[in-house]
Amino acid sequence: MLRPLLKTAARRYMDVTLRVGARNVRILERPGAWMEAQALATLSADLRRVAGRTLKGALTYGVFSGDADVMKDVIITVVYGPDGTPIAFNALAIMQVQTRPRAREVLHLGLVMIDPDARQEGLGWVLYGLTCFLIFLRNQMRPLWVSNVTQVPAVVGMVSTVFSDVWPRPDGGRCPLQHLLLARAIMAAHRPVFGVGEEAAFDESRFVIERAYTGGSDDLQKTWDTAPKHRDDRFNTFCADQLDYTRGDDVLQLGRMDTSAMRRFLAREVPRAARFRLLGAGALVALQRLVLPLIYWSDSRQDYGILRGRS
Description:
Layout: H1 2-8, E1 15-20, E2 23-29, H2 37-54, H3 68-71, E3 74-80, E4 86-97, E5 104-114, H4 124-138, E6 144-150, H5 153-162, E7 164-167, H6 177-189, E8 201-203, E9 208-210, H7 233-242, E10 250-257, H8 259-268, H9 275-298
Parallel strand pairs: 5-6
Antiparallel strand pairs: 1-2, 2-3, 3-4, 4-5, 6-10, 7-10, 8-9, 9-10
C-alpha cells in the first residue's frame, strides 16, 4: 500500500493501482483532466479491446470515443490480466444535474464489460463496489446520488439491494418527489451519458425508457433470454413485467450511496478474503484526502478560496 500512496498522495485526482489476486486493478478519476493525450488514447484503446471481446458490434458513445472532454467527467476502473491485457472495465459518469434549489452531483453507474473468458472470476464486486467504496471515501463519506440505466435483472437487483432509497424496485412503493424531479432533469440534459437518443420516450410513472437503444448504445441491447438474471426471482419478474425487450426498454433507477449502502456492500458483495485488502485501499484514499489539503495549504502559489487571496 505504501507504493501507491507515495505515487498518488500529491495528485488532485485519484489514480490508484491495486493487486486483487493475480489481477491488477487501476482506478482513474477524471483522466481527461490530467492524462497526456497518448496515455488517454491507450486507455480508450484498452476499453475498446474489452468491448470488442464482449460485443459483436462497435460502440461509439462516451468513453469509447477517446474524447478528452468526455473523459473529464468519468471514473474508469480497468482490470488487467497477469500479462497486462485488459479483461474488464467499468466506466462511471459524473453528472452535474441542474435541480432546485441547487445543482446535484450524480454518479451514473455506467457501463460494465467483462471478457467472456473472465466472467467466472467474480470481478463484479471489484468493478462496481470497489470503485464506489473509494469514491464514497473521497467524498468524505457524504451521501451521494447514484443513477443506473439497464435492462439486466442482475444489475437491477444489485442496485436495489446495495444502495439506499432506490426507486423503482419491486417493493419500492410510490415514487418519491425528489427522485421524480431528478429523473426529469437527467432525461432532459444527460441522455448522451448512457447512449439514449432524443426520440426515446420516458414513462415517468414507471421510470421506463422506451426504445432506449438509439443513441449510440445499439449493440448493448439484449433479449430476455440473454439478459443475466438475479438470484432473487423478484427482480427477474419485475424486469419481465415492466420492460419490453423486443422494443428495447431500459429502467432508470435512482438511489443514494451512504454509510448504510457501503456496510451492505462490505457484508454481501465483497469476498471475505478480499475485505482486508479493500479496507487497506480505503485507508489509502482516506489518508490521501488528509495529505492533499496540507500540500495545497503549504503552497502559497495556489488560491485557497476565501482563506487565502492570490498574491
